[in-house]
From TrEMBL:
Keywords: Hydrolase. It is an enzyme of class 3 (hydrolase). Pfam families: Palm_thioest. The keyword Isomerase does not apply. This is palmitoyl-CoA hydrolase.
């Protein structure tokens, strides 16, 4: 499907602790194989800004994607990496209408994160995994740190569903008004 529609613009969005430069490695091979492909990286929430709460990032990226779609009547493709996949998926879930033909989420924790990823090893030890829910499952941290918005501790599902204000909503585990119902 993608190969037949290379004239459609690709938009890419990075992951946690990355900037627009960080996703370029993902795009370089595509551009080598298909040099006429138009690819643009969304330049928002770079580096440390990427730890802002996911709903805030969804709204910011959503505004950009809406402008992009208005300028692209034939549609667009979204290529979103890591945490960016959650953000792009969140954008698509709240937009009433969109013309995204293909949504590609690479290495994205769509079902949540539990355990220490390579990106996070320098911030906390593997042994801390069992106690991250203490940090994340409260209103204060849900409004401040993106990782807390997708932390999904399989041993603390009651607290996850009660306190996580992003991922359970996005995955339809909790009814809410933010999701587009069209």
């Amino acid at each position: 499907m993608i190969m037949q529609s290379m004239n459609i613009h690709f938009w890419a969005f990075h992951g946690l602790f990355m900037g627009n430069y960080g996703i370029n490695f993902l795009l370089s091979e595509t551009l080598q194989e298909h040099p006429s492909t138009k690819v643009t990286v969304i330049d928002l929430f770079n580096n440390m800004e990427s730890i802002k709460p996911l709903w805030k990032q969804v709204h910011g990226v959503g505004k950009v994607i809406q402008r992009i779609m208005k300028k692209s009547p034939h549609g667009v493709h979204l290529l979103c990496f890591s945490q960016g996949g959650l953000i792009c998926r969140g954008v698509l879930s709240v937009l009433p209408n969109h013309n995204v033909h293909a949504f590609i989420a690479l290495a994205s924790p769509l079902a949540g994160q539990y355990g220490v990823s390579q990106v996070m090893k320098s911030y906390y030890p593997s042994s801390a995994t069992d106690s991250v829910y203490f940090l994340c499952y409260n209103k204060f941290m849900q409004k401040r740190i993106s990782l807390c918005n997708f932390w999904n501790d399989p041993h603390q599902q009651v607290k996850y569903l009660k306190h996580n204000n992003f991922l359970p909503l996005l995955n339809g585990r909790i009814p809410h008004s933010k999701m587009n119902t069209v």
